[in-house]
């Protein structure tokens, strides 16, 4: 069972409440920020705490040239793909603050991927780096991309259609390189991508896995806990 909860602020008290409410016995955290030291202290004091880093290797050969700069969320997703989609070529598309693309091949080898601007970031960039273009809102639950009939809709069309073209281009590229590709879509803007791609030629390859990071972290906990016990 997966319980996902968004907290406005991660505080020691909030984490302690969750530990008590759900009787959490083991924990880990995907962050390198010093601001979470107190939270980690609570986890260590009240659970079996497993330290997570890109050095956590549970079956994936990490060929990333700079593992120290590899985002922990990226590594967690790769681990999840390894466990939940074994012996498959998995192309992970995480549409969040950035749009991150990662490939784990069928031999459980990871070489890296691509990092692109997220949707919100693109809207903000158009406003920030131009003199007159406004900051435009968008509804991530909306399935239609508007025609560019005025400045607002032109920005929406350019950003949103540009993202879809980019995602489809990356999937096409990976299909040309890998057989039987499984495309895993996750992240806060995943719903928008899924609506846009549901009638595309890529639809049969796509799986929506919203908890990919959490699944990867859970596998790290399970592996480390078994090893130590």
Automatic annotation (TrEMBL):
Pathway: Cofactor biosynthesis; coenzyme A biosynthesis; CoA from (R)-pantothenate: step 1/5. It is an enzyme of class 2 (transferase). Its cofactor is K(+); NH4(+). Its main location: cytoplasm. Gene3D superfamilies: 3.30.420.40. The active site is at 73 (proton acceptor). SUPFAM superfamilies: Actin-like ATPase domain. This is Type III pantothenate kinase. It comes from Pedobacter steynii.
């Amino acid at each position: 069972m997966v319980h996902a909860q968004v907290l406005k602020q991660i505080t020691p008290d909030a984490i302690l409440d969750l530990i008590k409410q759900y009787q959490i016995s083991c924990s880990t955290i995907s962050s390198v920020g010093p601001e979470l030291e107190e939270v980690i202290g609570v986890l260590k004091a009240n659970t079996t705490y497993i330290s997570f880093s890109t050095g956590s290797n549970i079956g994936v050969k990490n060929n990333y040239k700079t593992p120290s700069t590899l985002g922990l969320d990226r590594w967690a997703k790769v681990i999840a793909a390894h466990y939940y989609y074994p012996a498959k070529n998995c192309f992970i598309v995480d549409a969040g603050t950035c749009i991150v693309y990662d490939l784990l091949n069928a031999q459980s080898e990871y070489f890296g991927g691509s990092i692109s601007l997220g949707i919100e970031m693109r809207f903000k960039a158009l406003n920030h780096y131009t003199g007159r273009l406004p900051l435009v809102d968008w509804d991530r639950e909306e399935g239609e991309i508007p025609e560019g009939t005025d400045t607002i809709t032109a920005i929406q069309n350019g950003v949103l259609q540009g993202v879809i073209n980019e995602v489809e281009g990356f999937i096409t590229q990976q299909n040309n390189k890998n057989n039987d590709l499984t495309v895993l879509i996750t992240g806060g803007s995943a719903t928008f991508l899924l609506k846009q791609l549901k009638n595309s030629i890529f639809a049969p390859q796509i799986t929506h896995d919203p908890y990919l990071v959490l699944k990867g972290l859970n596998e790290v906990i399970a592996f480390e806990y078994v090893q130590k016990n």
